[in-house]
UniProtKB/TrEMBL annotation:
InterPro entries linked to this entry: AAA+_ATPase (IPR003593), ABC_transporter-like_ATP-bd (IPR003439), ABC_transporter-like_CS (IPR017871), ABC_Transporter_VariousFunc (IPR051782), P-loop_NTPase (IPR027417)
Any single Pfam family the record assigns to this protein: ABC_tran
Keywords carried by this UniProt record: ATP-binding, Nucleotide-binding, Transport
Origin species: Anaerocolumna aminovalerica
Record-given protein name: ABC-2 type transport system ATP-binding protein
Family annotation (CDD domains): ABC_DR_subfamily_A
Gene3D superfamilies: P-loop containing nucleotide triphosphate hydrolases
GO MF assignments: ATP binding; ATP hydrolysis activity
Domain ABC transporter, residue spans: 1-229
Amino acid sequence: MNALSVQGITKHYSSFTLCDITFFLPQGRIMGLIGKNGAGKTTTLKSMLNLVRPDSGIIEMFGRNFMENEEVCKQNIGVVLGEIDFYKHKKLAVITAVTKRFYQNWDEEAYQKYLEVFGLDPQKRVKELSSGMKVKYMLALALSHHAKLLILDEPTSGLDPVSRDDLLGLFRQLVKDGERSILFSTHIISDLEKCADDITYIKDGKLLKSAEKSVFIQSFQSLKEPGEIRELSLEEIMLRTERRHYDI
């Protein structure tokens, strides 16, 4: 079963249009969402979550129409969006006390475990956290109600290389049993080389390609220069695609 189905999502703005975005995330897999700044990645995520209202299209989570079952679906998803911030002067313990009331499956033992894993002090105030620690705190909240689908916008941004590698390892562990799925956007393409099963590429508001990672990489090998033998990496594919136009 697909954990997430996005079909024909379109959103019009005065200076930008997200056009007919379609992709599917099977259960138990990690999908990387890529594209340069302004390509439409965050608009896609927000449209999926009804944070902005798409003009057309269908979003399904766990086989349910999201717009018709938003409250039920949100009990089973964890969301980390980079631009969302908390009250800077509040302690983490206070924010958590409010947040956990919204989730029927809140697991306090799991939450305490993630605080320890991420090195978070619940008595610290938001203003005392680095950007990376804020991401870790939002992940702790997202993971503590047994979410089956994690939707993450730039989750590794601001993390040092060791913390990033640890987080990617955690992602692989989370999907290992096949019960969870992860969709995350990132500018750090090397992260996807390490942990993604599938890649979805949005360019200028349009879907360029969505496929299993090895199939995705193979479909862009026409970008190689004459005489190049080795396979192009995901980062090289994105760099060359953004600098030249190809129909894949």
